Amino acid sequence: MKFTDGGTDQRHTLEAVRCASICIFYELNLDMMILARCAPGQSWTNPAERIMSILNLALQNCALERPSGDDDTEREIIRCGSMASLRTLCEKKQDIKQKWIELIEPVQSTVRNRFLRLSLKEKPMQAIDPIAIDEIDIIQRHLREHFPDLNLQKLQKVHTKKCQSYIQWIEKHSRQRHYTFQLRKCDDANCCIPSTLGRENLMWLPDPVVNTTDQDHYLQYEEVKHQETEEDRPSMKIQKKSKKTDQVVEKTTDEIERPTAIENNEHSEIVIEYEDEEPEFAENKLTTAQHARSTIVCVECNKAKSVVLKHVLTDRTESLFSTSYQ
Predict the structure, then answer these.
(1) pLDDT tens-digit profile of 17-51?
(2) What are the boundaries of the region Disordered (predicted)?
(3) Where are the alpha helices (DSSP H) in the chain?
(4) How many of the other CB atoms lie within 10 Å of CB of 148?
């Protein structure tokens, strides 16, 4: 089982990470492989998250800067706006690739040496050398053998969903969830090497299930072990309280009734009408900077306030806001 912090280089919802996991699954001849990341609010239990506070100790009072190369090399590197474009450049120009390795090596050595000074429970930290490009190509042979029509240069979902051999293999050998991605050998001897463990020891890891009596916690593993569970994602649900029954009704974000904005010409203001009831305070996940659509001036405190909406304001609605609150 492999825990990650959910970063883009290890996020198991990405097809490139899944393909890399399939290669490791075959290369190590594993009976089962589980990639997991923590449910919201539970990152304190994730070793990949908890180790960050320890690693930060080694980087205190440390400034990192790579040495400058020659003018031609620096000119080529500056044009690259991301590591992806830099890797593309290195593939086209091998001399740039070698010079980049020489420039970045002192920074890597500094970080490596500082991490090696650390220890956890009297066990010294270990630094693993990154895998070489040639070794990656060797491991990728598993993808070429099992999915001959898969383009290894385009490992995005928009491309992998067109590969029937890949889709069929995923349906037969994997279980995909938002928090976990699991691989397991099948019973077909023509497809997989027989497992060393019995089928009863290779059960799918159950999904996180919210405790109905305590919504702030999940059920213990022993309570959901060997049970068929459905993915429970509290962050994707909005709780609404009905005035008539005082019952909490869970609805997904796609099922929530959207209010309608009606222009009141007589008073030159916008009236928001709701089909069933007035809303309660907005959830924290909606009150973020990316949902701030406009600003208005409060008539009581004479201070600017943000207008937070899920959808972008249309030109007409934005003009109504500006005229109504002037």
Answers:
(1) 999 999 999 999 999 999 988 766 667 777 877 88
(2) 227-246
(3) 15-27, 47-58, 71-78, 83-92, 94-115, 133-139, 141-146, 157-160, 164-173, 221-224, 315-324
(4) 9
Interatomic CA distance for residues 194 and 178, integer angstroms: 29
Exposure on the CB side of residue 301, measured as CA atoms within 13 A? 4
Average pLDDT over residues 124-146: 87
Question: How far is it, in rounded angstroms, from Cα 97 to Cα 95?
Answer: 5
Q: Which residue has the tokens 């400058």?
A: 68
Among candidate residues 140, 195, 134, 155, the one with its CA nearest the CA of residue 24: 140
Question: Reduced to 3 states, what is the DSSP secondary structure of residue 294?
Answer: strand
> What is the longest distance spanned by two Cα atoms in the chain?
78
- Quote the CA–CA distance of 32 and 25 in Å, as a whole number: 8
**What pairing do the DSSP bridges indicate for beta strands 174-176 and 180-184?**
antiparallel
Strand partners, 261: 272
Q: Is the pTM of this model over 0.70?
A: no
Encode pLDDT of 52-98 as tens digits.
Answer: 888 899 998 888 888 888 888 888 888 888 888 888 888 888 888 88
